[in-house]
Write a structure and sequence with these properties.
The chain has 210 residues and is mostly helical. 74% of the residues lie in helices and 0% in strands. It has 13 helices and no strands. Helix 6 packs antiparallel against helix 7, helix 6 packs parallel to helix 8 and helix 7 runs antiparallel to helix 8. The longest helix is centred in the first third of the chain and has 23 residues. The model has no long low-confidence stretch (mean pLDDT 91).
Length: 210
């Protein structure tokens, strides 16, 4: 617990330092971006959004804040605002990733896939997103293939659980193994995922009982 308190104290200190820097250099976008990142990591989405909206009135190049502000809008569920900003920014890998995330959230899965497939540098975060999109399209084999490209030590509880979903019809034993790994990694997520995918799990069970 003491370690957690120290970590929180470090974050609070850095936040106060950044606020002091902003007071000294109100036109420097970097301090706002760093502070917004800390606020987002703390789950203070509304505060981060408000900070960047106000900063756009103060900095010399307000467009420098657009990507991070779009992320803030996304985190708050303001998908139209997020897309409006993202559409003003040149399409690099970060922007393509964020656009794919937004389109997946609003149910435009094919558009999400198109943006995700355009990303040049494929890392584990992109692989997870691609897996999520393929899964949302009902393409279990494609989803499994891309999730499996994430090295085993790097797989989150979510990735392991969804791998279980992708193999459920073909290999229930393997699916259970994936899901048990997910349960050990994050029991809270595991329970949420069970509820979220209850209809799929029940469908497979019913088919097995025919």
């Amino acid at each position: 617990m003491a370690k957690q308190d120290k970590h929180q104290a470090d974050i609070d200190r850095k936040i106060h330092q950044l606020i002091a820097k902003i007071d000294r250099e109100p036109q420097n976008p970097d301090n706002y971006l760093q502070l917004a990142t800390y606020l987002l990591n703390e789950g203070s989405f509304a505060q981060a959004t408000q900070l960047l909206e106000q900063a756009k009135q103060l900095v010399k190049k307000p467009q420098d804040l657009d990507y991070d502000l779009a992320v803030c809008y996304y985190m708050q569920g303001n998908f139209d605002k997020a897309l409006a900003l993202l559409d003003q920014i040149p399409n690099d890998d970060l922007v393509l990733y964020q656009k794919a995330l937004v389109y997946l959230k609003i149910g435009q899965k094919q558009k999400a896939l198109a943006y995700a497939l355009t990303i040049k540098q494929i890392d584990n975060r992109v692989r997870e997103l691609l897996g999520d999109i393929w899964l949302s399209l009902g393409e279990l084999k494609e989803a499994r293939t891309i999730y499996e490209q994430i090295p085993i030590p790097d797989r989150s509880a979510k990735v392991n659980f969804l791998l279980g979903i992708t193999v459920l019809e073909d290999d229930r034993k393997k699916a259970q193994q994936f899901m048990q790994i997910a349960k050990k990694q994050d029991p809270k997520y595991y329970q949420q995922a069970l509820d979220q995918y209850a209809s799929i799990l029940k469908l497979v069970e019913d088919n097995g009982n025919d």
